[in-house]
């Protein structure tokens, strides 16, 4: 007997996967300072990859099939993304800072404590751009994981006109992912100071990646007044 007919979400996920997979096959991606991550793994310290939403394409492609846990929203778009990620070896917890966030954080904590590295777009899923949301600080405190700042850049790519100035590399481009110096969040540090330090570290890793590739990001969108 024939199997079940894929629904619209499954078909969209398959279509997105085919496009992304074709692009990924053409990309050259260099990991810079990845020995810092390997040192954490050797010491048994949980890894919390932290990056800006607009630079997530390359790290996602570079860490496929590594069992990393991440978060996807409970929206229809999030469903498509989650299915694609799971097909490519990621563990996905559903929720966001605005919907299902509490349960999602608990799920992330559980997965990290089980031994998985995690990855969070720390200003996502809706911004404001490059403003650290509280989830990553809470995750670090609850798991004892160390923050690994991540920056990514492309020698030939396009910055989109979205709120996060999303970077999409062109086919056959050379790309880099920079892993900044990992660090823990001290118990005595306030949440506000921790968010500031994390944001500065991710900015530094991103700037280093752009310096390597020569990329010049456009200015961020001006926030609309309410």
What does this protein look like?
The chain is α/β, with parallel strands linked by helices and 226 residues long. The chain has one domain. 39% of the residues lie in helices and 19% in strands. A five-stranded mixed β-sheet has the order 1-9-6-2-5.
Task: For the structure shown, list the relevant keywords.
two-stranded parallel sheet, single chain, globular, 7 helices, 226 residues, 19% strand, alpha/beta, five-stranded mixed beta sheet
Mean pLDDT across all amino acids = 90
- What percent strand? 15-25%
Distance between the termini: 56 Å
Low-pLDDT residue intervals, each spanning 5 or more residues: 1-5
How many strands, which pairing sense, and closed or not: the largest β-sheet?
Answer: 5 strands, mixed
| Count of DSSP strands | 9
From the alpha carbons, calculate the radius of gyration and give it in angstroms: 17 Å
Question: H/E order of the elements?
Answer: HEHEHEHEHEHEEEEH
- Put simply, the count of helices is 7
For the record, the count of structural domains works out to 1
Spatial order of the strands in the main sheet? 1-9-6-2-5
The helix-and-strand class reads alpha/beta
Layout of secondary structure:
Blueprint lengths: L7 H17 L3 E5 L2 H9 L3 E5 L5 H6 L6 E4 L3 H12 L3 E4 L6 H13 L4 E4 L13 H9 L2 E9 L2 E3 L7 E3 L4 E6 L11 H23 L13
Parallel strand pairs: 1-9, 2-5, 2-6, 3-4
Antiparallel strand pairs: 6-9, 7-8
Helix pairs in contact: 1-4, 5-6
Short description:
The chain is an alpha/beta fold. It has helices at residues 8-24, 35-43, 57-62, 76-87, 101-113, 135-143, 191-213; strands at residues 28-32, 47-51, 69-72, 91-94, 118-121, 146-154, 157-159, 167-169, 174-179.
């Amino acid at each position: 007997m024939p199997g079940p007919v894929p629904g619209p979400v499954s078909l969209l996920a398959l279509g997105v996967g085919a496009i992304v997979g074709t692009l990924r096959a053409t990309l050259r991606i260099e990991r810079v300072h990845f020995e810092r991550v390997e040192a954490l793994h050797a010491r048994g310290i949980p890894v919390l990859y932290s990056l800006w939403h607009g630079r997530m394409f390359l790290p996602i492609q570079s860490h496929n099939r590594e069992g990393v846990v991440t978060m996807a929203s409970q929206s229809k778009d999030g469903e498509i993304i989650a299915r694609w990620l799971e097909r490519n070896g990621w563990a996905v917890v559903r929720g966001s800072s605005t919907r299902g966030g509490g349960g999602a954080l608990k799920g992330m904590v559980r997965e990290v404590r089980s031994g998985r590295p995690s990855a969070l777009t720390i200003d996502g899923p809706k911004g404001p751009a490059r403003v650290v949301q509280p989830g990553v600080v809470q995750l670090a405190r609850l798991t004892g994981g160390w923050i690994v700042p991540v920056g990514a850049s492309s020698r030939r790519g396009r910055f989109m006109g979205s709120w996060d100035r999303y970077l999409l590399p062109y086919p056959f481009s050379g790309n880099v992912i920079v892993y900044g110096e990992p660090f823990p969040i001290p118990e005595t540090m306030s949440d506000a100071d921790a968010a500031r330090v994390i944001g500065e570290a991710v900015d530094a890793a991103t700037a280093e990646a752009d310096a390597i590739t020569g990329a010049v990001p456009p200015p961020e969108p001006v926030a609309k007044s309410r």
